Amino acid sequence: MARVVVDVMLKPEILDPQGQAVANALPRLGVSGVTSVRIGKRVEIEFAPDSDPDGEQAARRAREIADRLLANPVIEDYTVRVEQ
Amino acid sequence: MSTRVGVVTFPGSLDDGDAARAVRLAGAEPVRLWHDDATLHQVDAVVLPGGFSYGDYLRCGAIARFAPMMEIIILAARDGLPVLGICNGFQILCEAHLLPGALTRNQHLHFRNRDQLIRVESATTAWTNSYEVGQELLIPVKNGEGCYVADRSTLDTLEAEGRIVARYLSGNPNGSQRDIAAIRNEAGNVVGIMPHPEHAVDALTGPSTDGIGFFASLLAHLRSGGATRSKAGPRSGDPAGVADEKVPA
Prior knowledge:
With 84 residues, chain A is an alpha+beta fold. Chain A has helices at residues 17-25, 56-70, and strands spanning 2-10, 41-47, 76-83.
């Protein structure tokens, strides 16, 4: 079974108000020196076992899913990695 | 035969009832369409209402975009079927790539619910031809993710081609780039708007009746031969009204 992790992040030029709100709260925790916080999504996809030892097929299918559904290319970038 | 305007209900739609009522007040026959149904029931136009389709999971409109009903609306819209997306409907149109750009979390992170002044900037669409350019409308805005974003070249193209349909006046409620409240596709049959014209059609319940013009515009557009009835084919033994019965009360 291949587990694929897709990380979806807002593109750098897209404002992340959630991340900013977290960054602004950090001094209240006594944390200083943070210049930026960006918040994204982590999606874990598990594929049924098959003859795909290195997870190549799983990664390809995960990229298709990410392209069509998990990420909106207008505002988001994504990365795919296989975790066996 | 009266004009038939479809209003789609997704799981989590909220404003389908008000949209159907606005259609009726404008003089057309509202036809309730169910997201999981793949026939347009011979409607002349479609309204995608506001709400939180599929709980706004993943991104607003991202899952609704793949509903069977949306797949046929996307094809029909490319053939000229008039489609108005309001709020969540606007988000779905962007996710479906019928309109460019995306709608993101309000810049200030607050859900904004108020009566909002907007200015009409394109009066040649299927949904705004009864207004005049420069006309100001007071209609409710209520969204948490209404901040319109697109890259600079897309924004410049929208401006250059007159495809910004309305802008916010007297304060931008969500941080939308260039104060964009509504945009249209090139042909003008597809319009997405973040504020809610369907909530401003009756003096008893709305801040004005300024919103009725969107629905009156559609009737004028269809009367002038603007579009043909949706090519949904025969009703395939699917009696009219089946969709209505599936719609939760």
